[in-house]
Amino acid sequence: MGSRASSLLREEDIEEIKKETGFSHSQITRLYSRFHSLDKGENGALSREDFQRIPELAINPLGDRIINAFFPEGEDQVNFRGFMRTLAHFRPVEDNEKNKDLTSGEPLNSRTNKLHFAFQLYDLDRDDKISRDELLQVLRMMVGVNISDEQLGSIADRTIQEADTNGDMCISFSEFTKVLEKVDVEQKMSIRFLH
Amino acid sequence: MEGFWAVFFPVLRVWFTCLVVLIMLPAMFGISLGITETYMKILLKTLEWATHRIQRASRAEEILKRSASNGLIQRNDSSLEQEIEELRRNRPKTAERGDFTLSDVLYFSTRGIESIVEDDVTQRFTSEELVSWNLLTRTNNNFQYISLRLTVLWGVGVVVRYCILLPLRITLTAIGLSWLVIGTTMVGFLPNFRVKGWLSELVHLMCYRICARGLSATIHYHNKQNRPKRGGICVANHTSPIDVVILANDGCYAMVGQVHGGLMGVLQRAMERSCPHIWFERAEMRDRHLVTQRLRDHVNNKTKLPILIFPEGTCINNTSVMMFKKGSFEIGGTIYPVAIKYDPQFGDAFWNSSKYSMVSYLLRMMTSWAIVCNVWYLPPMTQEEGEDAVQFANRVKSTIAQQGGLVDLAWDGGLKRAKVKESFKEQQQKKYSHMVVGDDSSD
């Protein structure tokens, strides 16, 4: 009957995800229920259509870019591990968090990794640079038909001019980080869990 | 073989006599023998004990936190403008137009991820998650094995529900429905005296009462003085087809709906014979003018029964009220709002039509503990001066939501199957564009 979703998730898996992402046991089981309820095809993986079915996401101007962030290069399905890995970027940063026991160097929800998530929303071809073209496309997604091409073009030019420090007319990740250095990324890119 | 039948028939006869005397007759005349009350008391005690055991077994704190709110995350309520202003606060202001900053994207990304983790709409189309287990397998989401006693209790529950209650309920419903068909057909043969109307109402009431017993439904009606009157339109939130049985137990309504084939069709035609209902052919439903006209004709005839309409258009899981379609509110006439709230502890009444067919849904209903619900009749409302149908619909919707303790959502229940309209996204884009070029945009 599909109601016992948590029984499909094994304890070992939960432990691994806990180590990798830092979510608590109860958060992982609740998120698994959510994953399961989004998975209409019941094949253990989400497709882009499954995400599109969420009305609030479908009306988000950057909805498609956010959905894309879940799918690794060239793939059409994301399993629960991948789902959690992406969501982990938005886990709040706790003051007393010690990262010693994580396999990778930095936790997924560190400031750098959060900024990298935001960077990838702009970087359409995943070549680690935001070109003028890519910036224009993302701007067009956000403003719709309400701003003319010329105006948008000048906004893009100005943005690149302000951010670009090495003169290659693109924004690299370090230049992106520099622009956002005063922004409270840890707080703005976090989801507050109730449990 | 002979011996078997010799035993079987007397048993069957005793069974039927008990049924008729103890359940059917009281039901038909609206009196209660107190059997259901006793059953409910025992059930409540058992469930309380079970919850207590579960709480003792798991860490009590975790469960307490959970009971406080069933939500997963805390949603940010501030507006787009507020959030983006905050994001831009630390940026040096330039005098030029074009206030875009690279950090603007953080607002959309966080909102997007929040809606992926928990959104207001998709959760309304699946059954509500219970705070504590009610000993039914179907609601067992995150509860693990606790103790032997609990499992035994669950086992006893299964036996009671499937072997005792289920046959009882199926028999009752079968009797109820056949009596409906026979009774209404018989009344239909009478000429049009006033007695016909009175008899028809009696027949309908009796059958719905039997059907309600067939579901072990305990209904509490509040504010009976506001009950819908003739020539009015009764409007209620929709959770399942059983809503009709619940409401019809306390009054007679003219039903509105599509003509069906099969068993439903038989019922519809039978009911039509004794008093006028409004059944539409599938093709007719698309013609909105025709629909409105027929409804208006019915309402203007003050001798006809009040119409029962569910303006949401689809079943919602009884935690919220979704957009009311304005069609019902354009007919004119007095609207009698009714709020229906089921108690999920005893049985989940929501019909998830994408997951369960009608038959499996009814079986699930009949193998739950019981259906317990509260019905509030709200004071009649009419369209005010200068108020259009949409505003009127929203006003009625908030009244119902408030009374029933449900969340008042503006989202369309049709999102269960359809995609959201592009215009909502365009609204968001427009709002954001204002933040980029300021209010003196040239486009």
Notes on the structure:
- The complex is a heterodimer of chains A (195) and B (443).
- In chain A, 52% of the residues lie in helices and 5% in strands.
- With 195 residues, chain A is mostly helical.
- Chain A has a two-stranded antiparallel ribbon with strand order 1-2. A two-stranded antiparallel sheet of chain A has the order 3-4.
- In chain A, 34% of the residues are buried.
- Residues 98-102 of chain A have low confidence and may be disordered.
- Chain B has 443 residues and is an alpha/beta fold.
- A 7-stranded mixed β-sheet of chain B has the order 2-9-8-3-6-4-5, sandwiched between helices. Chain B has a two-stranded parallel sheet with strand order 7-10.
- In chain B, helix 9 links the parallel strand 4 and strand 5.
- In chain B, helix 1 (2-29) crosses helix 7 and helix 6 (148-188) packs antiparallel against helix 7.
- The longest helix of chain B has 41 residues, at 148-188.
- Mean pLDDT of chain B is 81; it is low at 64-69.
Number of helices, where a helix is a run of at least 4 consecutive DSSP H or I residues of chain B: 14
Would you list the SSEs of chain A in sequence order as H and E? Answer: HHEHHHEHHEHHEHHE
* Order of the strands making up the biggest sheet of chain A: 1-2
Strand residue content of chain A? 5-15%
> Strand arrangement, largest sheet of chain B?
2-9-8-3-6-4-5
Radius of gyration of chain A: 19 Å
Number of strand segments of chain B: 10
- Average pLDDT reading of chain B: 81
Helical content of chain A (DSSP H or I, runs of 4+): 40-55%
Cα-to-Cα separation, first versus last residue of chain B = 90 Å
Distance between the termini of chain A: 27 Å
- The secondary structure category of chain B is alpha/beta
Main sheet properties of chain B: 7 strands, mixed
Quickly count the helices of chain A: 11
Largest sheet of chain A: 2 strands, antiparallel
| Backbone structural class of chain A | mainly alpha
Q: Could you tell me the mean pLDDT of chain A?
A: 85
Order of helices and strands of chain B: HHHEHHHHEEHEHEHHEEEHEHEH
Low-confidence stretches of chain A: 98-102
